[in-house]
Design a protein that fits this description.
This protein has about 90 residues and is α+β, with helices and mostly antiparallel strands. It has 2 helices and 5 strands; from the N terminus they run E-E-H-E-H-E-E. The chain has a single domain, classed as Aminopeptidase (3-Layer(aba) Sandwich). The longest helix has 15 residues.
């Protein structure tokens, strides 16, 4: 986890290997990230995802994230979608 601005934090390379997806590991990692940010008095968790991965995007939405935009980077073969979740 890294603090990116003020009370906003971002996990570094949060990912689950394909063979372990859909086994709740991602949710456990997300819960851990949220707890860690909360312990640091953070108020916002931000992530970047592959915008084209609609299943992943919907998973984050189901877990309280909202889309905040997207950007195409020349060095990447995909569009980066940005999402955030305000923590209580």
């Amino acid at each position: 986890m890294k603090q990116i601005d003020g009370e906003a934090w971002e996990p570094d390379h949060l990912a689950v290997l394909p063979e372990y997806r859909h086994c709740r590991i991602g949710k456990d990692l997300l819960d851990y990230a949220e707890e860690t940010v909360h312990e640091q008095n953070g108020k916002l968790l931000k992530i970047g995802i592959m915008e084209e991965n609609e299943r992943l995007k919907q998973w984050y939405i189901k877990n309280g994230f909202v889309s905040t935009g997207s950007k195409r980077f020349e060095h990447l073969a995909f569009t980066v979608g940005f999402m955030g979740k305000e923590l209580k």
